[in-house]
Amino acid sequence: MPRAHRLGPVGEFPEGSHQVVRVGNREVGVFNIGGDFHALPNLCPHQRGPLCSGSLSGTLDYGPHTGNELAWVHDGEIVTCPWHALEFHVPTGRCLALPHVRLRKFSLHVADGELVIVT
Q1: Against a cut of 0.85, is the pTM above it?
Q2: CB contact at 8 A, 94 and 102
Q3: In terms of Cα–Cα distance, which of 36, 38, 4 is closest to 19?
Q4: How far, in Å, CA of 107 to CA of 8, rounded?
């Protein structure tokens, strides 16, 4: 059965920030990207590293969708695992190097000025 957990006032999660919070028996990374909240498990599937304590940036991409030019994409949307640099697109949970790997995303919403996660 899904459970709702209050994480704190929305102001504690400013735009462009991310932080790791404990929810029950797990750690979750909470990201505010452009005013949209996202939550991912703080666990890299590669070797179970602390994924969400990694840095947040963009990444380089190349292909027909970039006009076959190197391009900086997803600025502020990529979290990089601090152990081995595996990159994940936060809004989708998709691993960039291994597109078939996708992290679980937790539902977040705002209630009475507080950020609430459903696990």
Answers
A1: yes
A2: yes
A3: 38
A4: 15
